[in-house]
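Quick one: structure for this chain?
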Amino acid sequence: MGMYDQIRSVAIMKKGVKVLFSTALMLVMMMSMAAAKPKDWVDPQYSFKGIHTVTIETMDLNKLVENDIDGQNMQTMFQSEAAKRVTHAKLVPQTELADVRITGQVQQYDISNSVIPAHYETRYHNETTTIKDKDGKETTITTQVPTTEYVPARTVYTSTVRLRLDVIDQKTGKAVFSRDDTRADGDSGDLQRTYSKLITVFYKEVDRKIRKG
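Got it. Here's what it folds into:
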């Protein structure tokens, strides 16, 4: 193979890799766009700037969390994440001292699994070649050489948690902000981590609403 042919081969391989990368990136973006957004409802007449004190009630596990240690950790997180994220109002332990109370209910808490069958994948490794032109000048070319590798079957776990969360005005007893949020973390069997993400995002939104009024 001449120098021109080798350079052309490198260009073709790089183009192929670029196409594969672009395709993978597009798939990731499509998956992100397809991810479910939380369903929110906000009382359009309510002024959040009037919220100065907040109390966090016990999370209703709805008999979906069988492990008592998981349940206790979820209750702790429901309180501790509020202390971290709600910074524009004071958290109080007594309901009668609060302007609003926050309630939560677990509506889904499970792990599903699927099997990725055994298959072959094309992967690339770098191979360096030094060539000389007719004048004896050396040029080093790195090419990406494809190899076919066997990938054994594996089980992929998905953690899915769905929560109903409400901010309830103490004077009226009516919700002023409600959220129904579901999160499914692929390739993960950590339900506690998925639960933590949901309540963290919720408390950030509550704090943003209080700050903006």
